[in-house]
Fold this protein.
Amino acid sequence: MDLDLDRIARAARDLDPVFRNSPQFVEEQLSAALGRPVLIKLETANPIRSFKGRGADTMLATLRPGTPVVCASSGNFGQAVAYAGRKRGLPVEVFVPYDLNPDKRRRMEKFGARLTPAGAGSAEARLAAADHAAERPGTVFIEDGRQPEIAEGAGTIGVELAAAEFDTIVLPVGDGALITGVARWFKEHRPGVRVVGVCATGSPAMIRSVEAGAPVTVPAETIADGIAVSRPIEEAVTRVRALVDEFVLVDDAALLDAMALILRCVGVLPEPAGAAGIAALATAAIAGDRPATVITGANPSPEVAAAVAARLGPSPPQADS
C-alpha cells in the first residue's frame, strides 16, 4: 500500500488552516428524513467550496516554488490546484473540457490558473495535459487520484472524523482519492467502520474496473461532474480494491432529491457529487445504525441549481409587516 499513515498524520498537522477542521455534526431533520442518525461533515466552507484543497495543498507542498504545474479538471480539482499554487508560488495551467461549468471556470481563473480547453470530456483533457507536461522538462503533471500525496491529503478528513461515533462511512467515488485516503486511516485506526463507495449510475467506471481488476473505460453520462470518470487510473483502482468494502450506485434523480434535502435541512446547496453520500443513504440498502458521510462540494451549475429549486417548489408567501 503506497498511502502512508505517517504522511496522512503529518498532512493533518501541516495542511493549510482554511481546509482543516470542517464542521461535523448530526443534523436532526436530515437524520429524521433518512430514518437514522447520520453524521455529516461539511467540506464546503472554504475558499474553493470543496474537499479537494486538502489533497492539492498536500501535493503542492512537496514542490519547489516556481515549479510549473499542469493538471486536468472539470472544476474542483483545478480550483484546488490553482489556489494552492498561488499560495505556494507555483504557476498552474489547467486543461478543461469544452463544456466546463462556467462558475468553476471563473473560480479557477480567479485563483490565477491559466485554462486550456481540450476535448469533450475529462479523458481528453487528461491526455492533453499529460502530453503538454511531457513536452516541457521541469513541468509537473498532477493527476487527481494518481499521486499518493493527493489521497493522503484527502485522508486528513478521516483523521478529523475518527474521533466521532459511527459504524459506516459512505463516500462519493470519482478518481478515488477521497475514499482511499479516508479508508486507509480508518483501516488502521477504526477497523470496525465499513467503507461504502458511491458512484453515479451514469458513471460506473470505477466499479467495473474494480470488478475487472484493471482500469475499464465506460463513457460517463451524469449531472455529477465531480464523480464523472470514464476511465480511472491504475493506481486508484489498486487502492480502491484494497480499501473499499462495498459500492452502491445512485441515479441523477436521487442526486437532485438529495441536494434538495440537504438544502432544506442543512442550508447548503451542494453540487451533485457532494450529495452522493446522502443520495445513497436515502435510496440504497446500506447497513449501519449510525452512518457518516461527507458533503464534499458546493459548486453546482446554474442548470442543476435550477433543477433543485424546482424540486423545492415555490417559496411560501411573506407575511405583511
